[in-house]
Amino acid sequence: MLVKGFKAAAVEAGFKYKNRLDLGIITADAPVAWAGVFTQSVCRAAPVIWSSAMAAKGRGRAFLANAGQANAQTGPAGTKDCYRSAAALATLLSCPATEIMLASTGVIGQPINISILEAKLPNLLSQLRPDGLNDFAQAILTTDTRPKIRTEKIKLNGHTVSIWGCAKGSGMIAPNLATMLGFLITDAEIKAPLLRNILVEGAEMSFNRVTIDGDTSTNDSLMIMASGAAGMNPADSGEALAKFKEASFTVMKNLAYQITRDGEGATRLITIRMRGAKNTEEAKLAARTVAESPLVKTAFFGGDANWGRLIMALGRSGATFDPYAIDIDLDDIPWVRQGQDNNKEKAASMVMKKTEYGLLINLNAGNGEYEMLTCDFSPKYIAINASYRS
Amino acid sequence: MLVKGFKAAAVEAGFKYKNRLDLGIITADAPVAWAGVFTQSVCRAAPVIWSSAMAAKGRGRAFLANAGQANAQTGPAGTKDCYRSAAALATLLSCPATEIMLASTGVIGQPINISILEAKLPNLLSQLRPDGLNDFAQAILTTDTRPKIRTEKIKLNGHTVSIWGCAKGSGMIAPNLATMLGFLITDAEIKAPLLRNILVEGAEMSFNRVTIDGDTSTNDSLMIMASGAAGMNPADSGEALAKFKEASFTVMKNLAYQITRDGEGATRLITIRMRGAKNTEEAKLAARTVAESPLVKTAFFGGDANWGRLIMALGRSGATFDPYAIDIDLDDIPWVRQGQDNNKEKAASMVMKKTEYGLLINLNAGNGEYEMLTCDFSPKYIAINASYRS
Question: Does a structural domain hold residue A158?
Fold first, then answer.
């Protein structure tokens, strides 16, 4: 895949893992419009603090990402390491350090090995090429089992425009922000403040609606650069903007889907559609409580058609409703009607053996709606996380 | 154990499990002061609705409890089953049905087999005896691996007074209310409104502070009866009340401890002491987020001294603090200082191999304090809950 105006590359720096790409870069051929949105954690990693300040400037040249160490809770030394990384790269790219956004993923409390990083940079830059994006997508992974990539192509004012995105996810995924790391590039021409709005709105419809374990990271970052290199195609208003937004949202939603599908130890993906809540806020509370409940998620894993677990989660969610007004559909099975069993156990059990299905829960208390993606809790989730560091 | 003025018994009704006690009763020899507190779920089970109405009357004769079916989300039929249970027992005890509190635990959405229950009642009553309390404690269990019982004896105005309590827990344990079912009896003499206050205050310090999986049941109930049969010992005021409260709290706290110790699949028990939060509310948010985080709980299981998981949970908890002011002690190990690693990995790893230890987290942002008990997430939790119904 090529996106005009960008090059990418990745190398094996050996930060934590051996024999795999773990240091990646995407560069724009010249300074371009960019934006970023970041974790809402009180404990923001050093690269998050760095990048959110740089994103605000609206223009830049490169994303640099490493996997293995999070550079979070690393104090003044971590801040200094960010500055050193950006400065070293900026020297090699002949641009100001402020034109570089950084992202790290890995173990919290561990610094990145800045000497290795600096030593690897020339080699990394020597490999920059227009079709290096797959390598970049590979280099940002930790416990992910596969890279997550999505591309959309649209026609804007007669020019073909591409939007490419990649993400890493796995554990520690939850609203807000659900992706550990997400990167988008496009050769559309669009201004930075609009890019930021698109990230905020898109994240709310995608990454913020997936949950694997309810935990949110210190490092969650979502970034975008727009080169405008696909030809004169200003996407700043009207139909062009609408088309661009829609395609960007498709990329983000698909990446969020892939993240959930690849949740740590996940064996099933479940879409939860909450309807008829008193308002949107209560729909969100109800959907999120169901999506994060360990008892619900273990029933998903077991394929146990036990709707009582859903009732339990809804009942404690904080949403207000009449327990005997709840209707629940499992795919097209009318599973629960007016809060009670509808004698569909056998059919429901069949659905719950599938690797992907949907729950439509109507609280019949109003017009509030919300939708979330979740996955099951398997013994593998625990195996992965009981010893993630080692 | 004997508590003056009470008898208890249990039988094998075969509601769900075979060859085990699953229907239990405690009766007072005459109507006595009583009180109850119940789940805050919007979806309250039929016996919860029944018993909370009866508790409000302040006086009664008996607790009747079954394990196997929750009689929750069972609609008008479930309500009728409660009335039939209470009426049948009342006839046999020659008292009004309003003098009976009911409690059920088991699968949500399943009715109790009321015909079996009615048929078993005469046999149950024929076995009532002062030392039947252990059988009662056994009959209320579901996935618990052992009964939870605690007794305190105190001297009030020269008389020895007993407070006996039992509980069932395991999964679906969380604030509020943390016990699936808890029952207390005492031969102290104390009025119903005071009993209720003691339950409310005691639950806040005990059952509401334990968490196994963050899930709260439709059936959580905590009940107490006070016979006054230990002699003239009014515990309604002054030092006697203070002593009685203290002993009651000891019973409740110990039962909550036993519930967490016996959490589904739990291999370790961890006390989380949050200190230095901006206020109590933030201390509670921070403590609860740490206690319920799947990533923290899997690290507990693995014995992985990964303090970054705690930082992650604190950061997303909603509490406000300076990330570089956090101090964390693991038992007596100064594990994290000013938000950073304190080079105690080896000592910390030793502590985390233990089956019981404590975390002292100081946010250094104010005077808010809160304490919780939690346990680890093990693969066994998932195995139990993937197929609990079958």
Answer: yes
pLDDT mean over B89-117: 94
Chain centroid offset of residue B247 CA: 16
Pairing mode of beta strands B368-375, B210-211: parallel
Do A375 and A282 belong to one domain?
yes
What CATH number corresponds to the domain at position A339?
3.10.20.340
Pair (B245, B283) in one structural domain: no
Handedness of CA A356, A361, A366, A368 (dihedral sign): negative
Domain co-membership, B291 together with B206: no
Place of tokens 């993240």: A259
- Nearest partner of A159 among A130, A188, A185, A184, judged by Cα: A188
Please confirm, yes or no, whether B179 is among the known catalytic residues.
yes
Residue B1 lies in a domain: no
Count interface pairs A-B at CB distance under 8 A. Answer: 211
- Of B233, B261, B289, which residue constitutes the final position of a domain? B261
Q: Which tokens in the block code for residue A124?
A: 């990394």
Q: Residue B352 is encoded by which pair of tokens?
A: 């985390």
- A1 falls within a domain: no
Claim to verify: residue B91 and residue B159 sit in the same structural domain: yes
pLDDT tens figures, B326-340: 999 999 999 999 999
Burial A4-19 (b: 16+ CB within 10 A, else e): bbbbbbbbebebbeee
Closest-CA residue of B relative to A387 is: B302
Residues of B in contact with A311 (CB under 8 A): 43, 72-73, 108-109, 218
Catalytic residue among B179, B218, B289, B374: B179
- Same domain, yes or no: B276 and B256: no
Q: pLDDT (tens digit, 9 = 90+) per residue, B7-59?
A: 999 999 999 888 999 999 999 999 999 999 998 888 999 999 999 999 999 99
For A294: left if phi > 0, alpha if psi spans -120 to 50, otherwise beta; the answer is: alpha
Q: Are residues A157 and A214 in the same domain?
A: yes
* Nearest CB to B172; choose among A295, A317, A320: A295
Pairwise CA distance, residues B37 & B55, whole Å: 8
pLDDT digits (tens, 9 = 90+) for B110-124: 899 999 999 999 999
Q: For residue B207, how many other CB atoms are within 10 A of its CB? A: 29
Domain boundary among A211, A236, A261: A261
Q: What is the pLDDT of residue A177?
A: 43
The pLDDT value recorded for residue A171 is 61
Which two tokens mark B177? 């209310």
- The total domain count for chain A is 2
pLDDT for position B214: 61
DSSP result, B31-96 = EEEEEEEE---SS--HHHHHHHHHHTT-EEEEEEEEEEE---S-HHHHHHHHHHHHHHHHHHHTS-
CA distance A45 to B353: 29
* Enclosing domain of residue B74: 6-261
Task: Kindly identify which residue of chain B lies nearest to residue A43, measuring between CA atoms.
Answer: B315
Composition of chain B by helix, strand, coil, percent to 5:
35, 30, 35
Specify whether the CB–CB gap between A342 and A334 falls below 8 A.
yes
Q: What is the pLDDT of residues A154-204, one digit of tens each?
A: 998 889 999 999 999 866 555 444 457 999 999 999 999 999 999 999 998
